[in-house]
Amino acid sequence: MVRLSILLLALTIAACAETAPSTAFLTFSESEPDGEPYPVRMLVTEKFLRIEDGDGKAGYILFDRAARIIYSVNHEARTLLVLQAQSVKPDLPRKFEHRVERDAATFPAVDGKTVTHYRLVTNGEHCFDVYAADGLLPQALAALREYHEALAFEQAAMQASVPATFQSACDLADYVFLPARHLAHGFPVRQVNRAGVMRQLTDFKTGVPVEPKLFELPKDYQRIAPEELRKK
Fold first, then answer.
1. Does 121 lie in the same domain as 174?
2. b vs e for 50-73, b when ≥16 Cβ sit within 10 Å of the residue's Cβ?
């Protein structure tokens, strides 16, 4: 079923008119520790980033890059969770020291671009491994950076409800204060976070036309704000 979904999406892209926006189509394999890998797909244009995982039936995420609004579409509940990016963030922790360790090892290039392994460390804690290809997919990289920065405010609100004794320096760095640091050295062809969740780029195509309707939102779904969910 997952393979069929990917094939249908690819056919939709291939069948579109030449007037459709030029798009980058990216596929990844993502997995959690001891879990089966599942696909993650992204479509990127100058205006939008669309993300869906699994078989895509549950819904998708649509990021309006210009408005800096994230929409999470839930088909089963027929809802649209609307997250508006904001610049307000909580105060930095008293101790907040981070560094980047560059691996001297050599890795296979991707599309002719050099891949380098970086370890991201905060307060002495190993937070993130990223294998970055410098110069690969610059528009997709910019869109992902904008997306993670837009999401940071909501992540900060979620962290505020966590007692300080249970807060992780890595989580604060990766999701709130430095949400795009894993994108600072090139496009991540492989990344692993502190929890062991791994995402690896498996394929990509650029300059392909795609139907504009893939970047439209359902008109009859209920719109909800994240504050409503946090109250439940």
1. yes
2. bbbbeebeebbbbbbbeebebbbb
Range of the domain at 37: 2-85+207-231
Is residue 52 domain-shared with residue 13, that is, in the same domain? Answer: yes
Residues 192 and 218 in one domain: no
> How many CA atoms within 13 Å lie on the side-chain side of 43?
26
Name every residue whose Cβ is closer than 8 Å to that of residue 212 and which is 6 or more positions away in sequence.
Answer: 20, 21
Half-sphere exposure of 226 (CA within 13 A, CB side): 15
Q: In which band, very low, low, confident or very high, does the pLDDT at 2 lie, cut at 50, 70 and 90? A: very low
Strands 125-133 and 187-193: antiparallel
Token representation of residue 140: 């997709």
Is residue 159 scored above 90 in pLDDT? no
Predicted local confidence at residue 77, as pLDDT: 95
Beta strands in the chain (DSSP E): 22-31, 38-44, 48-53, 59-64, 69-74, 79-84, 98-102, 115-122, 125-133, 187-193, 198-209, 222-224
Place of tokens 């895509």: 56
pLDDT (tens digit per residue) in 79-108 = 999 998 876 666 777 888 999 999 999 999
Q: Which amino acid is at 178?
A: L
**Residues 185 and 197 placed together within one structural domain of the fold:** yes
Structure tokens belonging to residue 189: 């062809």
pTM equals 0.86
Half-sphere exposure of 95 (CA within 13 A, CB side): 9
